[in-house]
Amino acid sequence: MSAPMAAAVLALFVAIGLGIDGVRAAQGLAGADAIAEEAARAAGQALDVTQLRGGRVAVDPVAAVASARSYLAQAGADGSAEIVDPQRIRVEARLTRPTILLGIIGRAEIVSTGTAEALLVADPTGGGTP
Fold first, then answer.
1. Helix (H), strand (E), coil (C) string for the chain
2. For residue 124, what pLDDT band results from cuts at 50, 70 and 90?
3. Which site among 19, 70, 77, 109 is 20 to 30 Å from 42 CA-CA?
């Protein structure tokens, strides 16, 4: 095999690796966003009962963060959750996936990050149907 042919084959493998692993990176971003959104929704379900009795909507900070972290763990993601204010939760999800072909040139993994917020709002109609 000649040197130009070897270089061409290597360049072809790199191009294929970029294509395959590029698609996996895009899928990772979409997945991380979806996981962050669902974790924020899970956290938003942890309402503070004392505040509800007073007519205000607020999350229980400890339970909300625990719910978000539990969802992240079940989804196979790392991340964090924070209570921005009593009605807003922010979640960041990080997914780490191995590369398929880019490991050949030293890129062993792809890290994708997604962020989402859940905002609690009270239902002014009382939530019932007429």
1. CCHHHHHHHHHHHHHHHHHHHHHHHHHHHHHHHHHHHHHHHHHHCCECHHHHHCCCCCECHHHHHHHHHHHHHHCCCEEEEEEEECCEEEEEEEEEEECCCHHHHCCCEEEEEEEEEEECCCCCCCCCCC
2. low
3. 109
